[in-house]
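Reminder to self: tokens first, then the designed residues, so the page reads top to bottom the way the pipeline ran.
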């Protein structure tokens, strides 16, 4: 780093996916528990294997098993594998990619001189954190449990530091000593919330203290938007077609990818961000134009007018804003109620919250 140059964080996708979005939490093993792929590549390869009548063990949202301290992770087809092995292999894959990136940028890297920072949810106990240290040993990242080369950082605390560092000067200067900051770290499975009082001025090294205990919800993350979307598909398709959809791994993956794009673009307050056209052509011959017309008619006859979908082509439908919002609403209600509760608790301590960051 050049003299007087501000440190920076470089973000890269370890799976080399086509977009710059967050890597999907998914890992694939063969039937002998050998690692095959990670991220979107794991999803794609698993779908292709199922279509070829092959089997493998795909694990998703397995961090939730750790939250509940389950000894095993459960694969998409219901089989089990030790959770330690699943998480250790995930860490190993990401660490190896990080080492490749470092070597590419700076040449020879002395592994013993690397300080690894592993972020963990604020909801996790000391038992969860110890599990992650053991997984880091299994992954070959560190040599022993108490190694100083591994630092565990609470995800929202790391986010809190970065929010201040990345803020415009005018905003940063308002976050003076004594200011109370709430950070909502919204992930795929959980939403972690921390409330801190700053113990530093805008020009000093970041220092804070916990005003309220870390909290949040374990089923408030974005993956549960997908869950509510698939509940809608179950009602829309009907029992028979929905079973076909679930068994057609490639079609299901493609429809969920398409919904992911709609989910990111959806903006109910902006007319240009309200159009959500869902492509269902991935189901092929199982869903022709006439069948889709019947499904649309049946769904609209049995649901409120504001949730009515429109057939737009032989294989696509428009999802109205109210229907899109319904996929998010249960999660929003949980988050909103928790934020309100914490704001009242902060007020009761005589330390009202000055800033709220959602990351």
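Designed residues (359 positions):
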């Amino acid at each position: 780093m050049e003299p007087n140059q501000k440190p920076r964080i470089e973000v890269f996708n370890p799976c080399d996916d086509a977009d710059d979005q967050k890597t999907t939490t998914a890992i694939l093993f063969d039937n002998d528990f050998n690692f095959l792929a990670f991220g979107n590549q794991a999803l794609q390869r698993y779908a292709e294997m199922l279509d070829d009548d092959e089997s493998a063990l795909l694990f998703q949202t397995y961090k939730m098993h750790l939250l509940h301290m389950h000894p095993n992770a459960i694969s998409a087809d219901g089989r089990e594998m030790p959770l330690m092995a699943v998480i250790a292999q995930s860490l190993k894959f990401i660490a190896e990619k990080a080492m490749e990136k470092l070597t590419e940028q700076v040449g020879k890297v002395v592994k013993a001189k690397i300080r690894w920072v592993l972020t963990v949810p604020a909801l996790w106990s000391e038992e969860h954190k110890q599990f992650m240290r053991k997984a880091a040993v299994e992954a070959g990242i560190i040599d022993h449990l108490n190694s100083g080369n591994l630092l565990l950082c609470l995800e929202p605390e790391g986010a809190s530091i970065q929010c201040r560092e990345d803020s415009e000067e005018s905003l940063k200067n308002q976050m003076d000593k004594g200011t109370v900051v709430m950070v909502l770290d919204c992930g795929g499975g959980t939403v972690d919330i921390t409330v801190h009082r700053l113990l530093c001025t805008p020009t000093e090294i970041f220092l804070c203290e916990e005003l309220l205990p870390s909290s949040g919800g374990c089923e408030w993350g974005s993956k549960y938007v997908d869950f509510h979307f698939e509940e809608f598909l179950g009602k829309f398709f009907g029992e028979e077609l929905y079973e076909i959809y679930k068994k057609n791994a490639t079609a299901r993956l493609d429809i969920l990818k398409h919904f992911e794009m709609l989910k990111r673009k959806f903006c109910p307050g902006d007319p240009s961000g309200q159009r959500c056209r869902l492509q269902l052509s991935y189901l092929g011959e199982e869903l022709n134009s006439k069948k889709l017309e019947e499904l649309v008619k049946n769904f609209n006859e049995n649901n409120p007018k504001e949730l009515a979908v429109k057939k737009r082509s032989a294989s696509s439908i428009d999802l109205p804003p109210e229907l899109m919002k319904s996929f998010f609403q249960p999660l929003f209600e949980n988050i909103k109620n928790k934020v309100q509760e914490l704001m009242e608790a902060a007020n009761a301590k005589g330390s009202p919250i000055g800033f709220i960051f959602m990351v």
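The longest strand covers residues 208-217.
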